[in-house]
């Protein structure tokens, strides 16, 4: 397959970019990929994601010149991680967080980025066993609730009642843990 | 040291071992990225903080005796390795170039068979990697998951309920998982079907890339397929999707091989034997040519055209003919011309050793 940029070399880099929900496919040779600054995720070694990320971040309308002016007058409000000192501007240039608190510090601004890269903004995978207890319980409650509605629809009221009791006891457990 | 002895010590399990579907899938890898709570990511960590990460992992490993898969693992600090030793680890896919060259207090925990390598202070504090021969992404994930659980008993990870495991790069956040398979697709390449196959793969959210060769080439018809998405899907979904797509690629490659045999059998045989001729006789060979010829050789072995050559010759030689490995074996620094000569010697020796072993075992090989 030929590179879609130069049409000469064979394409070795194949990926799909989702921008505002619109999928675009890319088939590039490494030379053109470098030139375009198209770096990609998922690959260890010479390719890194950071240039691509900066591109993505700079597409964001909120990150325009106007926004920068606003930020100049209201310095660091929500734009700087108080733990490691990384600013959102720096993050958007290097494409990497400085510490785990940056996620909280940059908050909702990150959602469009996550949506573009992953198509989602919420974690659905594994939860740490030792420290992730509450989330585990909440997920179990959700699961049980779905199961309960199914039982009710099927008029299996006895089973549904058992599920209801189980949900209650889990919710109490959550309440006792605070929050 | 004889080549045989050298390779016995030098090669990882993924190059030597046999796995399922290993006629097409060379290796399966799962990598999980994790960070410790309360410490900046390696990019911004101070030297003291980075060294603390190594110390904490080291302390956790103290109790590894109860955990069989890590029992004989060894922690190696990058600062204790020579440039060449680091390069060899990179060529064996056990550490990343970033860890070798740019990390501060970088280290790696290696299991004895080198199937497990845990990088410390790479882009993230901890990167657990499991690398298996053949097509076993599910098995690799099972082990990576166990390792992750085991570490989590002793180390507190940076985790948020909303975004999952927090990583230095937003492309890894959530599950932190990157699963990949390395596939050998010579028949699809010869029959020019890759341009139709790759777009289909990227459409389902996977990435494909040629793994060897600089610039524009995908040398040796070796490709790596990996997941792009890490957030919003469960680990098992990610692995299953990759495995499902890989299975289809295997099927397509098998069909293409079948058609090659039916359609142009003598041309295929000729190509394989020519490459075998070059590999077993050449005195100077570039890395590029070696990769191409080895791909033909491997195809010939897998399709039963060549007998009495171990299919792992390709896996082994691809790694062993890399610059770092050649220099390690020569115990000297080599410029690129010297490397081309040494590479030819290495390949001849390896193929010859293969033949002489067969002679001992079965008498003279009957090559068709």
TrEMBL record, chain A:
<dbReference type="InterPro" id="IPR036876">
    <property type="entry name" value="UVR_dom_sf"/>
</dbReference>
<dbReference type="GO" id="GO:0050897">
    <property type="term" value="F:cobalt ion binding"/>
</dbReference>
<dbReference type="GO" id="GO:0005507">
    <property type="term" value="F:copper ion binding"/>
</dbReference>
<keyword id="KW-0175">Coiled coil</keyword>
<dbReference type="GO" id="GO:1990169">
    <property type="term" value="P:stress response to copper ion"/>
</dbReference>
<dbReference type="InterPro" id="IPR001943">
    <property type="entry name" value="UVR_dom"/>
</dbReference>
<feature type="coiled-coil region">
    <location>
        <begin position="138"/>
        <end position="173"/>
    </location>
</feature>
<dbReference type="GO" id="GO:0016301">
    <property type="term" value="F:kinase activity"/>
</dbReference>
<dbReference type="GO" id="GO:0046870">
    <property type="term" value="F:cadmium ion binding"/>
</dbReference>
<dbReference type="GO" id="GO:0008270">
    <property type="term" value="F:zinc ion binding"/>
</dbReference>
<feature type="domain" description="UVR">
    <location>
        <begin position="138"/>
        <end position="173"/>
    </location>
</feature>
<keyword id="KW-0808">Transferase</keyword>
<protein>
    <submittedName>
        <fullName>Protein arginine kinase activator</fullName>
    </submittedName>
</protein>
<keyword id="KW-0418">Kinase</keyword>
<dbReference type="GO" id="GO:1990170">
    <property type="term" value="P:stress response to cadmium ion"/>
</dbReference>
<dbReference type="Pfam" id="PF02151">
    <property type="entry name" value="UVR"/>
</dbReference>
<dbReference type="InterPro" id="IPR025542">
    <property type="entry name" value="YacH"/>
</dbReference>
From TrEMBL, chain B:
<feature type="binding site">
    <location>
        <position position="93"/>
    </location>
    <ligand>
        <name>ATP</name>
    </ligand>
</feature>
<feature type="domain" description="Phosphagen kinase C-terminal">
    <location>
        <begin position="24"/>
        <end position="256"/>
    </location>
</feature>
<dbReference type="InterPro" id="IPR014746">
    <property type="entry name" value="Gln_synth/guanido_kin_cat_dom"/>
</dbReference>
<dbReference type="Pfam" id="PF00217">
    <property type="entry name" value="ATP-gua_Ptrans"/>
</dbReference>
<dbReference type="GO" id="GO:1990424">
    <property type="term" value="F:protein arginine kinase activity"/>
</dbReference>
<protein>
    <recommendedName>
        <fullName>Protein-arginine kinase</fullName>
        <ecNumber>2.7.14.1</ecNumber>
    </recommendedName>
</protein>
<comment type="function">
    <text>Catalyzes the specific phosphorylation of arginine residues in proteins.</text>
</comment>
<dbReference type="InterPro" id="IPR023660">
    <property type="entry name" value="Arg_Kinase"/>
</dbReference>
<keyword id="KW-0067">ATP-binding</keyword>
<comment type="similarity">
    <text>Belongs to the ATP:guanido phosphotransferase family.</text>
</comment>
<dbReference type="GO" id="GO:0005615">
    <property type="term" value="C:extracellular space"/>
</dbReference>
<dbReference type="InterPro" id="IPR000749">
    <property type="entry name" value="ATP-guanido_PTrfase"/>
</dbReference>
<dbReference type="GO" id="GO:0046314">
    <property type="term" value="P:phosphocreatine biosynthetic process"/>
</dbReference>
<feature type="binding site">
    <location>
        <begin position="27"/>
        <end position="31"/>
    </location>
    <ligand>
        <name>ATP</name>
    </ligand>
</feature>
<dbReference type="GO" id="GO:0005524">
    <property type="term" value="F:ATP binding"/>
</dbReference>
<feature type="binding site">
    <location>
        <begin position="178"/>
        <end position="182"/>
    </location>
    <ligand>
        <name>ATP</name>
    </ligand>
</feature>
<keyword id="KW-0021">Allosteric enzyme</keyword>
<feature type="binding site">
    <location>
        <begin position="209"/>
        <end position="214"/>
    </location>
    <ligand>
        <name>ATP</name>
    </ligand>
</feature>
<keyword id="KW-0547">Nucleotide-binding</keyword>
<keyword id="KW-0808">Transferase</keyword>
<dbReference type="GO" id="GO:0004111">
    <property type="term" value="F:creatine kinase activity"/>
</dbReference>
<dbReference type="InterPro" id="IPR022415">
    <property type="entry name" value="ATP-guanido_PTrfase_AS"/>
</dbReference>
């Amino acid at each position: 397959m030929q590179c879609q940029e130069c049409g000469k070399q064979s394409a070795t880099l194949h990926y799909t970019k989702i921008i505002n929900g619109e999928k675009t496919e890319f088939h590039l040779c490494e030379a053109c990929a470098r030139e375009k600054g198209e770096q990609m995720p998922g690959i260890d070694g010479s390719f890194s994601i950071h240039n691509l990320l900066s591109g993505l971040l700079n597409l964001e309308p909120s990150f325009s010149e106007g926004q920068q002016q606003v930020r100049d007058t209201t310095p660091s409000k929500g734009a700087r991680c108080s733990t490691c000192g990384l600013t959102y501007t720096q993050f958007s240039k290097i494409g990497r967080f400085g510490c785990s608190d940056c996620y909280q510090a940059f908050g909702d601004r990150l959602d469009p980025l996550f949506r573009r890269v992953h198509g989602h903004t919420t974690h659905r995978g594994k939860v740490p066993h030792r420290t992730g207890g509450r989330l585990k319980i909440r997920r179990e409650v959700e699961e049980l609730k779905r199961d309960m509605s199914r039982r009710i629809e099927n008029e299996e009221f006895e089973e549904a009642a058992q599920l209801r009791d189980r949900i209650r006891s889990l919710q109490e457990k959550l309440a006792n843990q605070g929050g | 040291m004889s080549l045989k002895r050298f390779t016995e010590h030098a090669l990882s399990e993924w190059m030597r071992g046999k796995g399922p579907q290993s006629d097409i899938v060379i290796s399966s890898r799962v990598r999980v990225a994790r960070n410790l709570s309360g410490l900046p990511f390696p990019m911004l960590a101070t030297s003291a903080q980075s060294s603390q990460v190594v110390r904490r992992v080291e302390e956790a490993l103290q109790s590894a005796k109860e955990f069989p898969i890590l029992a004989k693992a060894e922690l190696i600090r990058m600062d204790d390795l020579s440039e060449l030793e680091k390069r060899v680890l990179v060529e064996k896919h056990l550490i990343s170039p970033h860890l070798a060259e740019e990390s501060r207090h970088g280290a790696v925990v290696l299991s004895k068979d080198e199937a497990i390598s845990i990088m410390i202070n790479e882009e993230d504090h901890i990167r657990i990697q499991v690398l298996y021969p053949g097509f076993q992404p599910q098995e690799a994930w099972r082990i990576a998951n166990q390792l992750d659980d085991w570490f989590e008993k002793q180390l507190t990870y940076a985790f948020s309920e909303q975004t999952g495991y927090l990583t230095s790069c937003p492309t890894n956040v959530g599950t932190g998982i990157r699963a990949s398979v390395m596939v050998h697709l010579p028949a699809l390449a010869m029959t020019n079907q890759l341009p139709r196959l790759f777009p289909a793969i990227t459409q389902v959210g996977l990435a494909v890339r040629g793994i060897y060769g600089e610039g524009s080439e995908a040398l040796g018809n070796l490709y790596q397929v990996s997941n792009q998405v890490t957030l919003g899907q469960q680990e098992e979904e990610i692995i299953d999707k990759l495995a499902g797509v890989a299975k289809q690629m295997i099927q397509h490659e098998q069909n293409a091989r079948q058609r090659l045999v039916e359609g142009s059998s003598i041309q295929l045989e000729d190509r394989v034997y020519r490459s075998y001729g070059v590999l077993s006789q050449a005195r100077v060979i570039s890395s590029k040519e070696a990769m191409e010829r080895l791909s033909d050789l491997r195809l010939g072995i897998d399709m039963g055209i060549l007998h009495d050559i171990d299919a792992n010759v390709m896996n082994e030689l691809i790694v062993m003919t890399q610059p770092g490995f050649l220099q390690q074996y020569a115990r000297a620094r080599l410029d690129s011309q010297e490397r081309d000569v040494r590479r030819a010697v290495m390949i001849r020796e390896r193929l010859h050793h293969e033949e002489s072993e067969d002679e001992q075992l079965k008498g003279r090989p009957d090559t068709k």
